[in-house]
Prior knowledge:
Blueprint: H1 2-15, H2 29-50, H3 57-86, H4 95-100, H5 107-119, H6 123-126, E1 129-132, E2 135-138, H7 159-174, H8 179-199, H9 212-234, H10 240-256, H11 276-299, H12 303-310, H13 312-329, H14 340-374, H15 380-387
Antiparallel strand pairs: 1-2
Helix pairs in contact: 1-2, 1-10, 1-12, 1-13, 2-7, 2-9, 2-11, 3-13, 3-14, 7-9, 8-9, 9-11, 10-11, 13-14
Amino acid sequence: MGLLRLFLAVSVVVGHTSLFLGVNFFVAGSIAVEAFFIISGFYMSLILNEKYVGKKSYRLFITNRLLKLYPIYWVVLLVSIFFSFCIPMFQDIGIEQFSSHFKEFGISEWLFAITSNLFVFGQDVAMYLELNNGNLELTRNFAATEVPFWRFLFVPPAWSLGIELLFYVIAPFVVRKKNTVLVPLIIFSFGTKLFIIHYLGWDNDPWTYRFFPSELGYFLLGTISYNLYKRLDRNRPQNINEIGYIMSIVVIVLTLIYNLIPITEIAGISILPIDSNSIKKIIYMSVLVISIPFVFEYTKKNKIDRFLGELSFPIYISHWLVISLYNWFNKEETYDVTYYSLHIILLTVLVSVFLNRFVLNPVEKYRQNRVGRSSKNESIENYIEKKQVV
């Protein structure tokens, strides 16, 4: 699933830049993030059911996930802090915000700002806060506030990582449950989203896709997808590779041309109680859930695909920094906006290759050796080769 993850990360980059080659056809960044939640739910269900089992597995799982995410995040954080000192008005976040509102910060504000930037936990909560006369207050719409607290985050895209970490905390207690337990939880999660958006009328960011209780359903859909994979593993069709190949093409093409799909032209759409954009999203997410077992089975031994997939996290976490630096270096120059996204994507990919090579890979050896030492039946290297676990 590496190529799919790569394109989803690129979709988020495009969402934060401009049209890609003058055309708006990628899946929206918000939908790409929720698609990542589904994929994460699948992978976490896979490794918790097949890799992190037995005594002390919970502690090993949590610490290994942090070792997977924190090194790259901390490097991007340190570089962002450095350039915040060096470059005035660095995307209007970080040091620029701290210096402007230094006198308004109390102990609680400083504590929350430092811990959320350093450990990521709570960055999703920052999207619901504003600094008002020296106090942290809840806001229903950060875009309408004068000083939204997310601007005190040095790596703003990491808010979704904050949600991801919350899922890691509870994952060992839910991903081993049967579908009879998972389905009611999914209904409750999405019911919460519908209640907030349609009953309360909070149909704006951050409520649309940053509230953990209403996003939990996407992670659990990934668990449903894993359960489909286990059934597929027990009853393997003879043409499974052909199905996986077709499914891979379908889900990747849908990701790349999402905004070009003319869903509003389907007869009868207008009489349904939800808008056409919601219908298109439901179709896309449903195809993704069904496709993941086949795509994973088809690509799990492909080293090139895995290499591409490993780029998705550093692309996602570093692209804001790349955008900021690119904009600053080109502030007095004119450049063709048609190729703006392409430039950012290429630069971010280069940065991501560097981060994986010199930051992630050395840590990865230690991380997998920890699991290898705890395995009694099979070396972790062979397990990774067979299952492509993350």
